[in-house]
Amino acid sequence: MKFREAIRAATLQAMELDPAVFLIGVGITDPRAVWGTLSGALQQFGPGRVIEGPLAEEALTGICVGAATMGLRPLLIHHRVDFVMLSMNQLVNHAAKWRQMFGMQQTVPMVVRAVVGRGWGNGPQHTQSHHALFAHIPGLKVLVPANPYDAKGLLLAALRDEDPVIYIEHRWLHEDDAPVPEAYYLTPIGKAAVVRPGTDVTIVAVGPMVPESLKAAAALEPTGLSAEVIDVRTLRPLDLEAVLQSVTKTGRLVVADSDWGPCGIAGEIIARVAEAAHDALKARPVRITWPDSAVPSSQAIEARFYPGAAEIQAAILQTVARQRDTELLAPSTVKKFDGPF
Amino acid sequence: MSHEGALSAEVRRRLYYRLRLLRQVEERIVADYHHKEMRSPPHLYIGHEAVAVGVCTALRADDLVFPYYRSHGWYLAKGGELKALMAELFGRETGCSKGWGGSMHVIDLKAGVMGTSAIVGGTISHALGAALALRMQGKTSVVAVSFGDGATEEGVFHEALNFATLRRLPILFVCENNLYSTNTHIRDRQAQLDIYRRAEGYGLPGHLVDGNDVVAVYGEAAQAIARARSGGGPTLLECRTYRVLEHCGVNADDDLGYRTANEVAQWRARDPLTQARHLVAGNEAERIVEEIRVSVDEAFADARSSPFPASLVPEGARP
To answer: In tens digits, what is the pLDDT along chain B, a chain of 319 residues?
Structure first.
């Protein structure tokens, strides 16, 4: 099942099982159904539970807060993470605060699904990830699935959680194909996954950097280097234990993020490892992040903007103090987005 | 006073009692604030009382209100527990928000007082969500949301009028226009000063109400609530009123010079309590004053003797 089909499966399954779940968002009843992730939802559940929203992101988010405090479970869908910026007041000042600000009397069980629009020259305002912005805020939970199995399992878990959950979804992964169970299941929130065991270096990866990391690890295997790859899956709460366990074993850490570096999740992971397990480190940790600038549009430089398997491989070699004597890898094999929007 | 003839003695007494309750509680806050036991920024409702009392008295117990950070009046008018309000202002564990919210974040779910926000316009959209939820759940409750004139400059106010009308939600939008956003006059902020006329552009009824006349507010609110409950959709009420003390705090602010002494005096002469004095006969007013005085004394004493919260991590903070 493809990544985007797994999102659809989770959405329909949650709505079938729980009448409190409803969908709301701008353009969600569009025939294209958010890249097919909502195909059939309107027909199956009707406009009472698949609510087309005016272009009013702040109000739609506050509507979800209000409905959630009344016992419903809204799933708010944005075609771009960039559009969520219009609703930060509701997410940061309201949804994230509500539970604590009133002495734990109310919870805000709402989910915000937002798509990262990387590819096809979408440019500076349609491609941002922003997961670290949300992960900075106590009271929010932040999920970034990296494969179809977790795309379904994490969305189902989010729709059962009592706190506001931000679910960041990379369109870059939409066509990724892998087995996904038909049955209802949950990917636990707050648990990372070791997606490739290894002994020499730990790669902690976020979202689309997970397949890139796996590719780098596979390419290095013939040289005798064994890299362990951890899919962080949940940025808040962060599964520090899983990272520490691995780093204690390998002594080397590379963090591969699909976001900017400064004040980001890669720096956070490295800081927490340094605080908790400094003595286990045999080499300086390395982070792989976006260049510190806006995402460009032109295909000539867009392709160069994003780090991938090659950069991860170079970072691994750096931590083990080897020369870059291994042949550089081909670009990502993850199916790219072919436009136009 | 056109609605007054139809009011029962019970409603007249309730209106007057609630006006006095709001006023006496806040006068006591003013008197005691200098002790520095209440360490939370109070946006006092003195002068506005007729708005919350008029609307809340027209609501049912199972209706919901979404007040803003000038919150004490709505909280009390809707039946929120006085002791829990005072304990919250004193920062105590027994407060309505267990000491985590303070004056700007009050809540009483049993009374239908939903949580308030310190962000201008912050709960307008929550009211939409609650109204949507009530309808999805098949309930007949309606929702009233209050906000100041400044909030009508925020985009979310316009987003909300549109959405509520589009979905015919059972909502009463109550704008308490006191002419000032903090200390900036509405003339310096808005090009067209009739806020109620914004409604026309979004296809819902908008009415101008004398916000210092509790009977007028009650009458307009009752009609809008009946309309909302019968599926007729939302209404915008602009209640013109006046904040007598400073924007935030317990003092007069005549020294700042942003408003004239004459303006303040004119509004004080139209005090909502003075205007409502005729609602009760004989020495009933004195009995009400005394009854409330006892409750307020108790609530303040109770708050002072209650424990502070002990932990920085509230129980159940993380599931």
So the answer is: 455 668 999 999 999 999 999 999 999 999 999 999 999 999 999 999 999 999 999 999 999 999 999 999 999 999 999 999 999 999 999 999 999 999 999 999 999 999 999 999 999 999 999 999 999 999 999 999 999 999 999 999 999 999 999 999 999 999 999 999 999 999 999 999 999 999 999 999 999 999 999 999 999 999 999 999 999 999 999 999 999 999 999 999 989 999 999 999 999 999 999 999 999 998 999 999 999 999 999 999 999 999 999 988 766 654 4
Token readout for B98 is 């267990």
Which range of residues forms the domain containing residue A273?
193-319
Q: What CATH class has B4-300? A: alpha beta
Residue A24 host element (H or E): strand A21-25
Strands A21-25 and A73-78, sheet pairing: parallel
Task: List all residues of chain B from 37 to 56 with a beta carbon under 8 Å from chain A.
Answer: none
| A18 shares its domain with A120 | yes
Q: Shortest Cα distance from B147 to chain A (angstroms)?
A: 15
Domain ranges of chain B: 4-300
Contact: A102, B314; criterion CB under 8 Å: no
Residues of B in contact with A106 (CB under 8 A): 107, 109, 115
Record the pTM: 0.96
ipTM: 0.96
Tokens of B88: 């919250």
Q: Evaluate whether residue A32 is within a structural domain.
A: yes
Which residue blocks in A70-185 are alpha helix, DSSP H?
Answer: 81-84, 88, 96-101, 131-135, 148-158
